[in-house]
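Entry 0007
Protein: tRNA N(3)-cytidine methyltransferase
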Amino acid sequence: MAAPHAPVAGEAGSGDTELSLASSISEDGKRPQFGTRFLTDPRQVFQHNAWDNVEWTEEQEASAKKKVLENCQPLPSEKQEEYENRANEYWNDFYTIHENRFFKDRHWLFTEFPELCPQCSPNNVTHQKVSSTGRCVQDEERAKQGAAVSPINVNFPGATASYRILEVGCGVGNTVFPILKTNNDPELFVYCCDFSSTAVDLVKTNPEYNLGRCFAFVHDLSDVEANYPIPDGTLDVIVLIFVLSALHPIKMQASISRLARLLKPGGVMLLRDYGRYDMAQLRFKKGRCLSDNFYVRGDGTRVYFFTQEELHSMFTEAGLEKVQNLVDRRLQVNRGKQLTMYRVWIQCKYHKPLVPSPETLFEASEGILRRLP
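Output (structure tokens):
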């Protein structure tokens, strides 16, 4: 259900996200963490493929808001129900048509999310002590504490691993395969799931798919009653890359809260997704709006554009604490065509506290009260 996605002419797609992120990779093959390349002289705009942390002018932001308001008339309710009821069909059709041709190796993944690298703790990714087993001391201590809180049923894939990662909305494996290739930790096990059975089949038939280190399964993130093949309290990291935005907004909170139950105490949820007034949102034409900031693409798949505050509210209501919540405002440049494109993404890291703080409990209760009728 996640990106990659083929852009439709004249409409927003998520394939451009992969291309945009990849375009800022330096000549040595490494992409610097965002926020490190600044445009100080507008005359130099076409010297690089991308510029970080670009501030918008008041006029630019006003223009973006006006554009969104012009195209905010929602489609009829019966049409919206059709897109909701046929969501699985639309994603299966997408992967049937494109198969794995939109696979993009996410070179930026380990720069932005070092928690996915070998010997990395979700909460302490630098200056870590490594034990004689080759794993972070913090990871081993957290694993012991997590085991004490939530005894593990040994009858599930990856039960003997001590470090577990789940990618939600895996598509054709844009995140899971780079993790498996880069992280050679023998104690690592990676799970991946997608709404589309076609996408999961493509993952399973990939030559790099290894049942000894990975388990792929079909799962509807929005169905909070459906069981995961993983017990609660057993995951170290959950990854959501351009996937939450594909859900209907009314189903997002329950989905995040359900995922949070899977985390160990100290585990972390990583998210990167579309931000409000991203170029992809501004490209939508009239007749594509489903509700505020929620749209349908030409192929029937849907996308939402977030604010930092919306995501913070969801994560804290799920009982998680903020590690990072950043807006990545990036100016992408097509030097050949002399075009500039403004992208807005949000990147979040929220962890499950070993012991919930009073602030976490208060924010979670406040979120629940706001949702009551």
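Curator remark: The first strand starts at residue 50 and ends at 51. Residues 6 and 98 are 8 Å apart (CA to CA).
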